[in-house]
Amino acid sequence: MDTYIAQIQSLKQRHITDLLSRRNVVGCGIGYKIREGVLTDELSLVVSVTHKVDKSTLHAEDLIPSQMDGIPTDVVELGVLRAFLGPRDRWRPVVLPGVSLGHYHISAGTFGCLVRRGNDLFILSNNHVLADVNKGRRGDPILQPGPSDGGTAGDAIAVLEEFVPLDFGTTEPECQLAGLVATGLNTLAALLGSQHRLEPVKQTPGVNHVDAALARPLQPDMVTPEILGIGVPTGIGEAVLGMSVQKSGRTTGHTTGMITQIDATVRIDYYGPQALFEGQLIVSPMSQPGDSGSAVLDQDRRVVGLLFAGSEAATIINPIADVLTALRVEVVT
């Protein structure tokens, strides 16, 4: 099976750019094919779309073939995949993972789990929960509960420590020449009566692997590794197709699901800008807005991922190994 999965991964790598350019396509991964509503044991290249439409309404270049290079494909409807934000109780004197929290400028997300770097303890959650989609600064207050759940300045339990920047394909320019050229052209446009203006940007790779950030508790004894409704993690594990997983989140509480795709490339809507993620895990629907940041564990309480996005039809998680490597931390057990 490992050899066959490697063949599908190679196929996906060769065609991912083309597939993502097709109408309604939001992702592509590896999973078991569904035939007439029944999950089979046939591995396939799974192409995820916002919604299915009649083939007659699609241009030929937008159609997904039934197989590619001899490997079967499957088209699944996941809806628009959005970063999850969304309203819960104030926990004191000890705050457990699985409850509401967030940067003071957002609505609310979820305290995922406790991690450490050396002797330092940190709260693990998403960039868009703890760092307000790259806009946060080190030392910003993190509230519990999150602002939309009633959290105020007096509810700060931590401060933003660091985050992995989200790459949307462009960033602020560093080239002075580009700025000067844009200024000159804008001046010329104004003289000619045009209302349009140019704004220089720097092109970036536009590829992400994690939506992750750390917050430093104001006091180490304010937090515990015991995840609400689940318990203390026993370690970390690797997600595999068909695995049963669980999470505890601010909106839907303790829920379970199944890994339906691995090595998925997905486009996530951050309520305007979109970000491409590679190497993701897709799980059956087990979350709603506000569950972002939840740790996802197997049934032996090993952490396998960090929940960050989804839709009515699916939940998207970062593999935990990628998260821990990016932030140079380990899960507290």
Describe the structure.
The radius of gyration is 21 Å and the shape is globular. The strands form three sheets. It has an eight-stranded antiparallel beta sheet. The protein has a six-stranded antiparallel beta barrel with strand order 17-18-19-22-21-20. It has a two-stranded antiparallel ribbon with strand order 12-13. The protein contains four helices and 23 strands. 40% of the residues are buried. By secondary structure, the chain is mostly beta strands.
* Secondary-structure element string: HEEEEEEEEEHEEEHEEEEEEEEEEHE
Alpha plus pi helix count: 4
Domains (count): 3
CATH architecture of the largest domain: Beta Barrel
| Cα-based radius of gyration, to the nearest Å | 21 Å
The CATH homologous superfamily name of the largest domain equals Trypsin-like serine proteases
How many β strands by DSSP? Answer: 23
Main sheet makeup: 8 strands, antiparallel
Overall pLDDT metric: 92
- Intertermini distance: 32 Å
Principal-axes geometry comes out as globular
Question: Strand arrangement, largest sheet?
Answer: 7-6-10-11-15-9-8-23
Q: What is the helix fraction of residues, given as a range?
A: 10-25%
Structural class comes to mainly beta
Summarize the structure.
With about 325 residues, the protein is mainly beta. The chain contains 4 helices and 23 strands. The strands form 3 sheets. It has an 8-stranded antiparallel sheet with strand order 7-6-10-11-15-9-8-23. Strands 17-18-19-22-21-20 form a 6-stranded antiparallel barrel. Strands 12-13 form a two-stranded antiparallel ribbon.
List keywords for this structure.
333 residues; mainly beta; GMP Synthetase, Chain A, domain 3; Thrombin, subunit H; 3 domains; eight-stranded antiparallel β-sheet; six-stranded antiparallel β-barrel; 4 helices; 23 strands; 14% helix; 38% strand
